[in-house]
Amino acid sequence: MRPELVFPPTHEIDIRLSVNGRAYAVRTEARTHLADVLREHCGLTATHIGCEQGVCGACTVEVDGAPQRACLQSAARFEGKTVRTLEAFDDDALTAELRAAFTAEHALQCGYCTPGMLMTARDIVQRLPDADEARIREELAGNLCRCTGYRGIVRAIAHVLAAHRNQEPVHAA
Amino acid sequence: MKPVAYTLERHPDLLAACAQLASETYTKPIAGGQSLGAMLNLRLAQPEALVDLDAVAALHRCDEDAHGVTLGAMTPHAAIEDRVVPDVTQGFLPKVARGIAYRAVRNRGTVGGSLCHADPAADWITTMAAAGAVYTVHSAAGTRHIDAGSFMVSAFETQLAPDELLTAVYVPRLSADARWAYAKFCRKTGEFALAIVAVVIDPARDVARWVVGALDGAPRVFDDPRLATTFADPLARAAWLADPALDLDTTRRALLDDLIAQAVREIHP
Description:
heterodimer, A: alpha+beta, DNA polymerase, domain 1, 2 domains, five-stranded mixed β-sheet, 5 helices, 14% strand, B: alpha+beta, Uridine Diphospho-n-acetylenolpyruvylglucosamine Reductase, domain 2, Uridine Diphospho-n-acetylenolpyruvylglucosamine Reductase, domain 3, Enolase-like, domain 1, five-stranded antiparallel β-sheet, four-stranded antiparallel β-sheet, 30% helix, globular
């Protein structure tokens, strides 16, 4: 005899999102959070999903210009807002500097936390140009690296901050 | 790690939102969703419907007058941290805001949402009691005001009826010679605190409020001008913390002893 699985009926809604300058029309359940919609419906897999309780920071995206968690709210709540994922920053000058510094400082091992780290790093460099190492660590508390590679990540961000303070362009390795 | 199925309603009108909260369906309002979102994902909360408060313009307003500032319930923590909204507390609220969770959470989490969630270890519930804030609460039946010190009843429980919404937080302006202190202990930056002490000493307004938070239930408020002297003496402080009426376990007593000593130093530098 075959076990029979009974699933409750689902009710899907239509959502219109603006992600990375593109308009997406998505049909999904109201409970589906933004990170799932980005990955499963929009094909934007740079946004990673770690803890789904707002602690690990892997799903950090930019909403109306400021970083936010993508795992904590229904995607429907982002209608009318401007969402940018890491994919949007491919050609961004500051992100290019951060990528180079992350490479030079060995700031990633498995890479799972890296998209969130880069989103947060970009926010730190833009918002806190005078941040010292202690402040960088405080601001990074919302991004967990399970490889525990924080030293390299902090160094990479400090490196970019110092370069900006000295007005020197960072050359890619 | 996915929520139960729920419906999501968005009302631009406050009373329409209240009306839906009063319906037979198990309905919860959602503000920034930075706590409720996690509880939904963990299925600790299983509502049938959510009322999205984003579209209610009145909840995003902020008004300052000579006596203080009225913050709309949907004011995000980051707006307080960055002083995008006026600070009438000489840096007290901005300091507290900066220590809430993480920047990505502060950009979305709201002061009203945090208060209504009423996590004993959260920052605003203790801070607002010390600041002497007054909350405005709306429902179809009308408007009422609740003192911050009595708003929270027990862990995750407030005075709000199911069909009521906290709409605004009024924070009185500190006098020029007022002093404040805020000290909390977290095992990791941004984590919920294991102990919190918030103090506002404002002799011109006859305020000497010490609030102990991150307890099992609501924060405890002590308004007594003699406490500063008691707390400055280590033995008197220890005796005060050992009072059985406070019912503190050894760890909490030790943490609070340190935090109160720190607060005393901040108030009398």
